[in-house]
Specification:
This protein has 402 residues and is an alpha/beta fold. The protein has one domain: FAD/NAD(P)-binding domain (3-Layer(bba) Sandwich). The protein has helices at 4-10, 28-39, 56-59, 78-83, 86-94, 125-129, 131-134, 166-176, 221-227, 283-287, 293-307, 357-371, and strands at 15-18, 21-24, 44-47, 107-109, 112-116, 137-139, 155-159, 163-164, 181-182, 186-191, 196-201, 204-209, 212-215, 234-246, 253-255, 264-270, 276-281, 317-328, 339-342, 346-350, 398-399. Strands 6-7-5-15-16-17-14-18-21 form a nine-stranded mixed sheet. Strands 9-3-2-13-20-19 form a six-stranded mixed sheet, sandwiched between helices. A four-stranded mixed sheet has the order 1-12-11-10, with no helix packed on it. α2 (28-39) packs parallel to α8. The radius of gyration is 23 Å and the shape is globular. It starts with a helix and ends with a strand. Flavin-adenine dinucleotide binds next to α2, α3, β14 and β18.
């Protein structure tokens, strides 16, 4: 057994690396920003303390909102206006127009639906009167699968909001940035004054010098900002999502309730074994915070039995997933827009929505391109890390109680 002194003598020195822009966090905000910086010829790397792919990103429903959800209170809110252009921007990337090229991305649904079990009534009159929303929402006569039961009574609208395969999106972005992503990293020290990060990767100590640091670490941003001596400026808004899997139709829809939030939002994910996964959010996930998982699963079954009584539940399996939305502080309310805080050397990003990530990343790339000259830089010679698994591959499944 070598002595401690001998062990110290044989310990490798930190490997010294340098990059112009160092991004922390491999969710949608970090990966999209990395892609755009590299498109502009800027030397940039991304580090994640876990497997990249994101925490909120992989837990998201993948809906590219166009604002309908934020106008359900009957008014066209600032949120609805801000997000209205996002489906068109994403559709351009899906058509291969602009970076990143997402023409290979699997789209789960080109549109989603909004349904109401009663007449939508006067509170949506103003909403429909707005040209912005009228163009994005259309009453349908032929119901989609899942709402096509003879018992269905209500109104159905088609929304101009695609639903994306988010795990596939993250895998594509990772593949496009091979040699530029280091994960999982042990983060030991971070200094914005000296512009240095110290950490370890695969047992090797690293020292990375950078010019600019981009914090895209979701819920990790608050603690990182504190570590750098900056005020955290972060809020968390928890959700308790529910999943059901089995023989289910592919339905992507919001059920309109009495409030300004959809009562239930269903997205569907085809699993590799042929089963369909329903991912359930909306008010169910907001109200379910603090509920025991077994209770939350039971409430989900009751909600489905009430809203979609023709869906057979007997052979389904159930799971739930608690996750926080991490955002810029806004008195606990949803921020209207994506957030970019510029503290000089350090930029902090919270996209607020997956849908907003391209907008936010373009702002960051524009700002940094004006400050940092393009140069090729060295890729990191390391195998590409795998993408983190989505929640449904990490939960324990439970049968419907008999
Ligand atoms: C349940 C749920 C459903 C949602 N559905 C939708 C939707 O349908 N449509 C929509 O537009 N938006 C949706 N959102 C919002 C959207 O998911 C988020 O706004 C977006 O994914 C945030 O991405 P991000 O990259 O900022 O963070 P994250 O995806 O959380 O990624 C942060 C990354 O940072 C890493 N990290 C953490 N700490 C550190 C550190 N110290 N150093 C380095 N790396 C670190 C983490 O490992 C992680 O990979 C949803 C959110 C939730 C929670």
């Amino acid at each position: 057994m070598p002595s401690a002194r001998a062990r110290r003598a044989t310990m490798p020195e930190s490997r010294a690396l340098r990059t112009d822009v160092l991004i922390l966090g491999g969710g949608i905000a970090g990966l999209w920003t990395l892609t755009l910086l590299r498109e502009r010829g800027i030397d940039a790397w991304l580090l994640d303390t876990a497997l990249p792919g994101g925490v909120q990103t992989l837990a998201s429903q993948g809906i590219i909102h166009g604002g309908a959800k934020y106008a359900l209170g009957g008014q066209l809110t600032a949120s609805a206006r801000a997000i209205a252009g996002m489906p068109a921007l994403w559709r351009a990337r899906l058509a291969g127009d602009g970076a990143p090229d997402l023409s290979a991305l699997r789209v789960l649904a080109s549109h989603q639906y909004l349904w109401s079990t009663h007449a939508l009534g006067s509170r949506l009159a103003g909403f429909f009167a707005e040209k912005l929303m009228r163009e994005r929402m259309e009453a349908v006569d032929t119901p989609p699968a899942g709402l096509d039961a003879p018992e269905f009574v209500g109104q159905i609208y088609r929304l101009d909001e695609p639903v994306l395969d988010v795990p596939h999106l993250q895998r594509l972005l990772l593949a496009a940035n091979r040699g530029r992503v280091i994960a999982p990293l042990r983060l030991d020290a971070l200094d914005a004054g000296a512009r240095q990060l110290h950490g370890a990767w695969r047992g090797e100590r690293l020292r990375i010098d950078y010019e600019r640091l981009v914090l895209a670490a979701g819920a990790g941003n608050g603690p990182l900002r504190e570590r750098l001596g900056l005020p955290p400026r972060m809020q968390r808004r928890p959700l308790h999502m529910v999943m059901a899997r089995g023989r289910l139709p592919a339905l992507h829809a919001h059920c309109l309730g009495a409030g300004a939030n959809p009562r239930l939002t269903i997205t569907s994910y085809p699993l590799s074994d042929g089963r369909m996964l329903w991912y359930l959010g909306g008010q169910l996930a907001e109200d379910g915070v603090g509920r025991e998982p077994s209770r939350q699963r039971a409430v989900a079954r009751e909600t489905l039995a009430e809203l979609l009584p023709w869906i057979a539940q007997r052979e389904l399996q159930w799971a739930s997933w608690a996750v926080d939305r991490a955002e810029i502080e806004n008195h606990g309310r949803r921020p209207e827009r994506p957030a970019l805080i510029d503290d000089g050397v350090v930029l902090t990003l919270w996209p607020t929505k997956l849908a907003f990530a391209p907008l936010l990343a373009a702002q960051v790339a524009g700002r940094l391109a004006a400050a940092i000259p393009a140069r090729a830089g060295e890729p990191f010679q390391a195998p590409a890390p795998p993408c983190a698994p989505p929640p449904w591959e990490r939960v324990k499944w439970h049968p419907t109680p008999r």
